[in-house]
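ok trying this again, last paste got cut off
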Amino acid sequence: MSGSLPNWNSISWRKSAHLNDGADAQLDLVGGVYDAGDYLKCPLPLGWSLSNLALAAVEYKPALVAAGQWELLLNITKWGADWLIKGHVMASDTPSGNAFVGQVGDIADLNFFGRPEHAKNARPVHLINFVSGGADVAAEYAAAFASVAVLYRSVGATKYADLLFKRAQQAYGFSKAYPKNWVSSSALFQAYVSYYDNGYLGHTAWAAAWLCKYSSAACPEAQRALTAALSSNLASNLGYDWDNVLPGAAALMLSMGLETSAAKQYLDGSILSKWKNTNNKCPTIPYYSVCYTPKGLAYYSDWGTLRSTAAMSFIATLAAKYSAADSRASNLCWAAKQVNLMVGGAGRSYVVGYGPSPPKSPHHRQSACSAVYKEPCRADSRGTCCAGESGVGQGGCCNEPNFFNSHTALVQLSGALVGGPDNADNFPDSRPDYQRSEVNGLVWPRHHLPEIFAVSGPVC
């Protein structure tokens, strides 16, 4: 989290930071969340993350309540949605009258290894408008707004929900009017660029499905958008992440009883059947197929494969919930086995602070530094040295040499899921290894997983 932290923030070592974001552009962009283990703010993955949190809340509220996470999830989704309202810097029912923040920060933020409250670098604001286009980003604004609207309406906050839904309609109108991905000028380091020229089709299908979830009047448009996306080359992409959100759109439509035949064929026939094909052994070419490691992990991506496997496990549970008994059992069993491997089922956990042999050195800026320090602090080696700090490790400075040192993290990121092993199950647990060790998500405690998977009867 970024900005002036609220009293419900449970991360004691995180301090308020970047309290002037947007000021250079005469905007208030204080707040929101940082991306991954760095200090950029990126609405594209933020929008996708918020809408998936909302989807989990809508579908699995009892598990979240049992885990004691329900109120925290409500707070976090509102925190993110409120910042996206700030990021929707021009709001209009006329598509050309809208403008959105595409990114806050640049390469200087990736090159700062200190605590965020000590960062002094410029934080440029990069905007999206009708000239630049950016249907992919605007659609994720729309999906986040509409999904959090659905969530908050369910708890009786109708005024806030209606406000968010209005913003969702405006953002979706922009994405439909200017159908191209956001590609920044060559002068900007753009952290997230779609790998598909028509990637916006998946994002608009995802956003439209959420608008449909909130208002049945939007459902014909959601059906049209899903059909367009499923008819494109996006349907052959096996991932589920910020760049390919189509599986989520199909699962959401399936949950509403819409486009059930097409959604089921796509999810079970085109996607999950390939993820569950245990006969396809590693190594294979990443991103084009799913292979199985010697320990049984479904491996898709060389860049933190667990984010892909975890996300697809979520899709499998959703597909199971709205499928016939045979498909339900198969999908739930597969998802349960994959999550079990992530939390230590094969002897090594990939969740910080949990299970056998958990990661000790995640790729995360602040966790490499001591949580306690004393002012004054001075700039040093792309970070800072505070009073009494020197060298690296315990008692060391919070800077680049410290980050790239091999010491165990000084702040434990409990529950954080790292990138994971290679396709031979090797995991070096090395902080500089951003492909294997960068934090990718959060896993609930294992004793609550049965509540997530128990949609009907035994899992396996």
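PB: full thing came through this time. The mean pLDDT is 94.
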